[in-house]
From TrEMBL:
The gene is calO. Residues 6-128, 142-258 form the VOC domain. It comes from uncultured Candidatus Entotheonella sp. PANTHER family: GB|AAF24581.1 (PTHR33993:SF14), GLYOXALASE-RELATED (PTHR33993). Gene3D superfamilies: 2,3-Dihydroxybiphenyl 1,2-Dioxygenase, domain 1. InterPro entries: Anthracycline_SecMetBiosynth, Glyas_Bleomycin-R_OHBP_Dase, Glyas_Fos-R_dOase_dom, VOC_core. This is CalO.
Length: 269
């Protein structure tokens, strides 16, 4: 585990939603997160961060009416650390992706941009001015798994590998229709990729797994608060138990009760 975020590490997860207040109450009840709002220097718009017992882990942002009416739904959006933003964005374009927004300065902390992969899936990239202390996600409330469901997971991996230098740590069911790639950086598992089955209830995109100490308790709390349960508690060898949900505002997310100790060789879906 690195002490600071390295190139290719997921380092910030944002929820963009139509009802920030309702979302704050939902995640507080389900995973224990709190929020903190402040006004960045020179801004008249407050910025709200998610907090757990170890500090900030992401942000809670408002999806405005115009964007929502244009077809954008509430969703989670992650930021990945890169060493050089300009080099990263050049690789995005060369590999068939698009620049959606930026690059722009994020105060004095670093520079940011939003990108889209060749399959239309969005992600953000961030280059810090100075090293940023890394959070150890494998505790209650941490985002411990970053999973991509795409139209072609092998093509998707090649795209992201060209940008982030990710590695394939394990391939489950190689060559089969349900093949699953476990990817990572510096031999640390970050998540998985697979091709969307034709009967899957959700569209392609990223799904982020929040670790919880008791899956059944968290899942029940989510359902009590109006979440839709996409998958019930599923036992996954090497990764513990997971359940995928859609929060009351419509954003997909997953809950994960992890095994005591993980080995990349054992990570499967």
């Amino acid at each position: 585990m690195h002490l600071t975020y390295q190139h290719g590490h997921f380092m910030w997860h944002e929820l963009i939603t139509t009802d920030p207040g309702g979302a704050a109450a939902f995640y507080a009840h389900v995973v224990g997160w709190q929020t903190n709002s402040y006004y960045p220097a020179g801004s008249s718009t407050p910025y709200t961060t998610w907090l757990d017992e170890r500090g900030p882990l992401g942000a809670l942002l408002s999806l405005d009416d115009e964007a929502h009416e244009s077809g954008i739904s509430p969703h989670w959006f992650a930021n990945v650390m890169v060493w050089n933003l300009d080099v990263c964005l050049a690789r995005v374009i060369e590999s068939g992706g698009k620049l959606l927004s930026g690059p722009e300065a994020m105060g004095t902390v670093g520079r940011w941009a939003a990108i889209q992969d060749p399959q239309g899936i969005k992600l953000a990239v961030f280059a810090a001015k100075d090293p940023l202390e890394a959070r150890h996600p494998a505790k209650h409330g941490g985002v411990t798994w970053n999973e991509l469901m795409s139209t072609n997971h092998r093509a998707a991996f090649e795209f992201y590998c060209s940008i982030f230098d990710w590695q394939v740590l394990r391939t489950v069911n190689p060559g089969a229709s349900d093949e699953y790639i476990v990817y990572g950086a510096y031999d640390e598992p970050l998540g998985g990729m697979f091709t969307r089955p034709s009967d899957h209830p959700l569209p392609i995109g990223w799904v982020y797994y929040i670790q919880v100490s008791e899956l059944e308790v968290a899942r029940a709390r989510a359902e009590e608060q109006g979440a839709q349960i996409v998958t019930l508690a599923v036992e996954i060898p090497g990764r513990g138990r997971t359940a995928q949900i859609i929060d009351p505002q419509g954003a997909s997310v997953a809950l994960r009760e992890a095994v005591a100790r993980e080995d990349p060789k054992d990570l499967v879906t």
